[in-house]
Amino acid sequence: MKQVLIRSFLVAAGLAISSPLLAQDSQAPAADAAAPESQVDAASIRAHDIALGRLSQELSHEMMAGLQLSAWATAAAGLCADLTLDEGALYADIVKAAHDDLPDGTPEEMQRHRDFSLIAFGVLTGMKLEDAAANEAAFCAEAVEIAIEAGDDFYVQQIGTAVQLPEGN
């Protein structure tokens, strides 16, 4: 069940990470020149593109999606007082995925790949924290809703009720 839930959530996590970047990137250049804050956004987009490009050169699409999900979960537990993270399960899954991503590698290659995967996880977590902190209340409301739907089959569990969900959820 955990694998099915994680796989179905991978697309959503990837979209959640890339959607703000795609939306900002599509703004007209004149909007960037209009305000100094836009320059920061453009620099952030460029940094994200460079980081994601580098990570994608080394890691499979499936590994990247799994790391993005893990980064999302880590950001959610870090920013949202109502959520906690099962760090042991998350770390074990990252290490296992890194091993499975390079099954025929030499021990040295596998160690390098695992190390790179953990570095990538840190980079992706930082990027997600930056994005999520910009609209923390909305991010946390969505994260709590996802944690409730996922139940025990996810790295993040609800531990509080400070975030109130809208009626009908």
Molecular structure report:
By secondary structure, this protein is mainly alpha-helical. The protein has one domain. It contains seven helices and two strands; from the N terminus they run ααααβαααβ. The chain has a two-stranded antiparallel sheet. The two termini are 22 Å apart. The relative contact order is 0.15. The model is unreliable at 1-38 (pLDDT under 50).
Which tags fit this structure?
single chain; 169 residues; two-stranded antiparallel sheet; 7 helices; 76% helix
Produce a short descriptive summary.
This protein is mainly α and 169 residues long.
Radius of gyration: 17 Å
Counted by DSSP, the helix tally is 7
SS class: mainly alpha
- Gap from first CA to last CA: 22 Å
H/E series, N to C? HHHHEHHHE
Catalogue the unreliable spans: 1-38
* Strand line-up in the sheet with most strands: 1-2
Give the overall average pLDDT. 76
Helix content: over 70%
Can you lay out the helices and strands and say which pair or pack?
Layout: H1 2-25, H2 29-34, H3 36-58, H4 61-79, E1 83-85, H5 87-101, H6 107-133, H7 136-150, E2 156-158
Antiparallel strand pairs: 1-2
Helix pairs in contact: 1-4, 3-6, 4-5, 4-6, 5-6
